[in-house]
Structures are given as structure tokens and as C-alpha cells.
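Journal club prep — side note

Before the paper discussion, L.F. wants everyone to see what a predicted structure for a comparable chain looks like in C-alpha cell form. Sequence:
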Amino acid sequence: MNLKFNTYIALAIIGLGISTQSCNKSFTDLTPEGSTTDANYWKSETDAIYAANGLYGHFSDDNMFGRGLFWFVNASDDMVTGRTDAGSAAVRNFTATGSESRINSMYKKFYQIIQRANAILTKVPSMEIGEEIKNRVLGEAHFMRGYAYFYLAQYYGDQRAGIPIVTEENMDELFFDRPAHVQENLAQIQADLLQAADLLPLLTTYSETDLGRANKDAAYAYLAKTNLQWARYDESKWAEVVKYCDMVTNSGSGRALIDTDKPEVDFESVFYIENNYSSEYIFSVVSNRTRGSILPAVMFENTGYGLYNGWGYFHPTVELYNAFEDGDYRRSATILEFGDTYTLFGQERKYYSANSQTGFQFNKYMHPFRFPASEHLNPNGDYPTSDLNIPLVRYADILLMKAEGLIQQGMNGDAEINRVRNRAGLQPITGATMENLKKERRSEFAGEYTDRHSDLVRWGDAAAAYAKPATGRQHSNRNDPESAYEIIEVWPAREFNPSIHHVWPIPPQDLSNAKIPQNEGW
């Protein structure tokens, strides 16, 4: 990826302080080297651009889109934790308190993004700088604030209480109450994203050095995602889902599936480094060999066969494996099973694992490991980033959200579903139902931040899914790719209470500091 340009400013976590950054790094590289004050800042276009760069600093935080938010994804029936860990087990078993180190920082970190956005929205409008840069920076601030509130609302808000709304208009207050309903948050998110869509350019107009910034299509996509959540409380929002999906399709940026009529490689290639900014890209966690998400190495074999420091988390289940239809090329692109041939550090080999709890490994993010380790991986195995961006929303999600919106309105979603199925090498279906839609989302997005747990929760299917144990394959010789196996239980059935566990506990320290109540039941 290429995100190189001079970057040296990021908004500090507290107040309106500013941190200086070194030159010749990507705009997501935010290593403090000095400081300046609010009084002598906010003068030039460069100041505004560097302030916007600070909105993306969380891309390099393991507690966000490395492993942090993936602990919530890991609650689904698609995977198990992979390693013994009491804190992550408590999350998966819905017995967490919110104080666990695995999940006790995301809440406040999203508010740090919001605080940085609020500072920009306070200061930049009065700056005497070019309109193009001013609009883009303000658009980025509105987008990233809406994006941060989207995840907060999805994970912590419901019909009993939203999450505190802090904007540039009320940011000087000392305390902020929880709104009566999360719909107040969703309305704020929509307002921010609409502003962002008006102000941001199409991603196709960005120079190579600016790829990865918020863009118009990303704003429309998160508007669709916001209304997808909102439709749980207001069925009129299904039409809005369809509308905003169409706005992505018709924006003029050429968003489309990677589909060259070669299903054996097309889906797999979505997760190639050279396709970080393909036609399917909408918004991703920007990564490189020094900064970004560590998720690919987190999923790689624990200790990496002595070749690289894989961490060995998040093992696919037999239930996920069996969810794929016969002939679906997405299964082999998503999951490695014993005996599969793959390339590791330039050498062809057959997959086996002495460490996998299920006999499987996610294959989706293995592209950086095909090459010599020095080519696309951070040499620091304790911070194993790679050159592969991690998708947060891609065009397949636009198609399947639209299909869901249509089906929920009693209309036909076949065309959108079949475009996704065709790319996977599957036959078209007619009269697609919600059951078809649910199966398609599971097969398409397994192991991604477009996560099945959130889908199961909003569909009302989580309790039934989690009442069944998770199973894996236990091989007779775990060092032999061809060894026989038996199916065993790897995680017991779990009790999911839909009136409690549809949201997560807010970390107790944040409750105390903000003087707000916990989510009911936690």
C-alpha cells in the first residue's frame, strides 16, 4: 500500500492538545516526537490536514481493530478463541463484567476519536484555508465521528438507553447523560454521515498518498449499515438501507465485486495485498509493515511453525465449515483444513496444526505469508502488522444489505444475492428468503468485522445458535496433514439472554468517571 506523505500532527487524547509526528510516514503513523499548543495551531492547511490524520491513529491499536473488537466477533458460532484465556472466555460466554483487559478500552477509545473530531469541527470552520481541503477535513471529522458512534451504538446501546452524545456544541459540559433510546444515537450518526457524504470526495479522486482516508462511498455505506441497525426499531428504515446502498453503486466511483468469471480465484483475491484498493474496497483498516492491524498474524498458527510469531487465535468451527454449500469456492478461501495445499514464505506445503482447537485455521488473511517474511510482514513479531488492509465494509456487503432491505419489504432481492453467489461459483436462486440471505452473509463474511454475532443478535437468532455446542476436528496425528479425525465438542453450549446479552457491558471505570448507569442485566 502507498500512504506516504509528511505527517506530524495528531490531536492528543485529552482536550485540544496537539502532538507532533515525524515526517515521511503514512498518515496513520502517529508517533509523538514533540508538542505544540492550541494557541499557535489551527493556522494553515497543513495544520488542518495533520489534525485529520489523527482521526486514524486507532488503526494501529491492537485494542481496536487488531484483536479488541474481534473479541465481540468471536462470540459467534463461526469460531472459538483458540487459546486458553479467562478474559476472552468470559466475553464469549456472556459472563464478562466489562473490566476484562480484552474489552475494557474500546469504549473510551471510540470517544477519543469523537473528541478529536469535535476539535476539528470546532476549529477548522473559521480557518482561512482553501475550500477543497477545508471541506475534506470537515468531512473526515463528520465521518469518523459517525463511524465511532456507529460502533458504540451497535455494541452498547438499545431501546432502554443509548450512549452519551458529545458534539462540538456541548463538548465543554462536564457530564453527559445516556439518551432514552439508541435511536437518538442513530439519528446523530445519520446526521454526521450525511454531512460527510456532502463534503467528502469520491475515493477515485484521491491521490495515491491519500488512499485510505474517509470517502463519499464510505459515508453512504455506513449510512446503509446505520439504517440496517435502525430497522430493528423502525421498519421504515429498510427502504433507507436500499437507498444508501444504491447511492454507493451509483456514486460514479465504479464500486463493484472483483469478478473476472474465475470463481476459483476471484473471492480469494479480494484479500490480496494488491487489491487493498480494488473496486470492492469501500473502507478498511489501513496497514503496512510498521503500523496497522495485526489480525492476520493473530489468526496465523501459534508460533508459526517456528518461522514467524503467529498468535493462534480465532479457530473456525465445524459448524462454519459445514455452512458452505458444496462447490462454494469461498470455503477454501476462508478456511484451511488438514491436507490443504498452500504457500508459506515461498514454499508450498500441506496444512496441519498441532495447536488448532478445531483442526482449522482462517485462510482469508494469509496472503502476506505467501512471500518471504521480510517482504510484507513486520519483522517485529510482537507487533506483527502486514501490508494487507483489513476490510471494514466492502461492496459485497452493499449488495447483501440491499438484498436484505428488499426482502424485508416484501420485494425481490435475487439479483443482488446472485451476483455474490455467482462470484463464489454457485448457481442462482429464485425467490430468495431471509434464510437464504442469512446463509449468504455467513459464507461471505466469515472471519471479518462485518460480523456474524451482530447479525445473529439483530435477527433474533443468537439464543438458538449459541444453545448448541461448537465442534471441531480432532486429528489422530496433529502433525500429519493426512491423518484421520473425529468430531469433538470444543466449546460447550452457551446461555444467551436476548434481553441482556444483545449489548455488551460498558467498562465499570467509564461508568464511574461519566456517572452513567450500566446496561441492564450486566
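L.F.'s comment for the group: Confidence is low (pLDDT under 50) at residues 1-25, 27-34. Keep this in mind when we get to the figures.
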